[in-house]
Amino acid sequence: MIEAIFFYVFSAVLIGSAAWVISSRNxxxxxxxxxxxxxxxxxxxxxxxAEFLAMIMVIVYVGAVAVLFLFVVMMLDIDxxxxxxxxxxxxxxxxxxxxxxxxxFVWMYLRWxxxxxxxxxxxxxxxxxxxxxTQALGMVLYTHYVYLFQISGLILLVAMIGAITxxxxxxxxxxxxxxxxxxxRNPKDVLKVEKITSGSGVH
Length: 203
Hints:
203 residues, Four Helix Bundle (Hemerythrin (Met), subunit A)
């Protein structure tokens, strides 16, 4: 009974915080709601016995990704007028895409069922009493799915390079340091040495 109560509490807060992420007008509040959603998802993983995934959720997503999101949102100068204009302009397409995804999720939920076919096992599976879930996850991830794991890392690297390329632009109103001009400057043009004798100053 206690586990069921905690499950419903974590689930309710997770759904509410996820709705807050997409409905909040302030992007900083959206990131804070995302952090709350990550914490509740970690609580659900703990209840499922997947403590490794729960710690990854807290350390990686909350401690690094969400904090990075928060810093980026606070540092960027976002034009909310243009953002809202684009949202209203593409609202119809967004509703269509969202409706299709919702229909797919509902169909998947209604058709969900456990398969009666025994899955093909490529290697002997150790007894679950001998290994914990962290070891089992590592054995599966770095044996059967090692190439997919490497490909996912490559995709993330390409996405990061693309994001840097798209957002890195020169702004004419920003004062930046031009190293090449400073290095090529002649010291005689900017520096003048004066020999001042004692008593020749202005009284």
